[in-house]
Design brief:
alpha+beta
Amino acid sequence: MAGRGKSGDRIEPSFSGRPVRDDDEFSLDADDRVIGSRSARRGGSKPPPQRAARQRRREPREREGGGLFGFLRGVVYWCVVLFIWAAIGVAGLVLYYGSRMPSASTWAIPERPPNVKITAVDGSVIANRGATGGEALALENMSPYIPEAVIAIEDRRFYSHFGVDPLGLGRAIVTNFAAGHMVQGGSTLTQQLAKNLFLSPERTLERKVQEVLLALWLEQKYTKDQILAMYLNRVFFGSNAYGVEAASRRYFNKSARDVNLGEAAVLAGLLKAPSRLSPARDAEAANARAQLVLAAMREQGFITDSEVKTAMSQTPASAKSYWSGAGHYVADMVMDELPGLIGDVKEDIVVDTTIDKSLEKKAEQSLVDVLDKEGGKLDASQAALVSIDGTGAIRALVGGRDYATSQFNRAAKAKRQPGSSFKPFVYTAALEKGLTPFSVFNDAPIRIGDWTPENYEKKYNGEVTLATALAKSLNTVAAQLVMYDGPDQVIKLAHRLGIESELQPNASIALGTSEVSLMELTASYAAFMNGGYKATPHVIRRVTTAEGKVLYENTYDSPPRVLSEQIAAQMNTMMMGVIENGTGKSAKIPGWQAAGKTGTTQNSRDALFVGFTSNLTTGVWFGNDDGKPMKKVTGGGLPAKAWKEFMIAAHKGLSPAPLFGNGQLIDNPNSGQPMAQAAPDGGQPVTAEVPPPTTIGGIISGVFGGGENAERYPQAPVRQQRAGPGNGPVPPADVAEGGGSGYDRVVPPGDVGGPQTTSSVQPRRTTLLDLIMGQ
């Protein structure tokens, strides 16, 4: 109880202090009370020390949330947020526009439009035809300056980016922003290729997204070199030139294989604005852009300072007109004929032609020289030329004065009256009916029905041999011959020799009133030159693919015989007289035997000369496209002069060879004894004997030569010594009633006056010859 008494003093619980506290004790501070003390309720007391300390500790953290640091922290935060949302948006656009494209498994590089490469006999390029304008070249076959120049100015990180260049894009944005307008693009070469291959040129967000996707696909599927080669072979360089080969030939007339540094810089500079920076349009702007390309190449380490200086002197001042040169007439002919030989062109092909580029240039120059010298004063504005060898291969063709001015091929497509250049067919038909170069006709006024033909000079010569009549181009004798032979026989012979145009069976055909083309007329003359074989004109020798597969090869190695050797030899000698003593004296070639015939139509609307040596048969035409008469231009004038200039140039360096049959002994059908060939003027016969050649190759001496050209053409067939069945007509054994001194005097049909040697005094009539005049 004592203990209990000691403890009886009441001890009140205390909350003011806790010197000792167990974990399970429960206590409250004064400030934790729900209802504070009276003084606290009055607001007159200060907060307890511990609470004040906590407030002081929070003040620095509140001050840290403000100021510049807080602003920057907020900017970074919101930039991150915006970037995330932008990425989400871009991804959405990519997915959306990507879903509008075909499945990637169906993507494929579209075929490049096929190119037709047209080459001469020496393999040099005449022209390229097709949508691109040039063949595709492998990267290693191009001049190394071309890819370097393009990379330096268009995509300097081409070999390091993955199809899209973020750095280049950023640089372009900054540059364009600083300039205030578009001065630099951010597309890579891969993106440009993707756009050219698959997309339209419109500038939309959808197209740009698709361009990026396609660029990534290209980079994944192809190597960098393959992408660069595709780009360089397809990109547009202006003037209808797609690819570096087409552009190089367009602007520099050379292959991209041979482009120098300055030219490569010009080509690379074109990519920014192909039309505006074209050297054919603005040489100064093209050169200025080329300087920027050279600077970029130097900056990239592709070239040195010395090479830059050299290149500046190599940069062409201007580009020649691409669409000029006679070779384009040939190229057009090739493209017209190709579908009939191989069908549609579906891949790159090479067409080997029979054209000799050196002869082509000489032919063009000869026409231009004569036109420039005399064409203006004689009102002659156009000319054409075609030169054919004994097999019918076209060695040179000029379709007009200037291809750039007019692309119409007057040598192959224009049909004009040949005038007296048609007379050799009339005389040949007469020889086949039994006449000879010595047969005599009366050159005098004649009437055939209502037609009264007159000679060009309105004079008459009385009795003349056929050789003399042809040399002087006497119209009255030709008119008598066509009635003696019959127009139908003349037409049949002309068609047999190679004339394909429709001919009218009337008496005036003797003076060449039916229209023909210069090419078919010239090819028909080749049958005289080669000894009687048909010479089918052709310009395409072989067609192959780019890999060398033969698609077509001509088969003109076995031509049919269309004239007997005797007739061909007689006609050659008679036509030699035209040049030696007749209307074609202006066509004489020093040191060479040549034969031919002049032709002039009414009022000199057309003038022609067709002639040949043992190597080439060449036809020349002068006139005007609208049919306007020239000032007394005859076939022995401008055409003969141009013919001579070309043939002299074409035969330079060749050894002269005689014409077929010249000096050869020919059987006389009257006596069965050998007869010397008629002299061109009807005088003393030629008696020198020349061994006859046995092949067309022997007849056409000097054309092919040996070596490479000998392999380009097929071997000619062996000649037959005598005409026989299947080899053309053989002259009959009998002839018209004979005259004295070995001459055959022929009584012509029609009303012919007596022998005269002076000009007729008969009043001039209005005749058909006033409408159709032949020389």
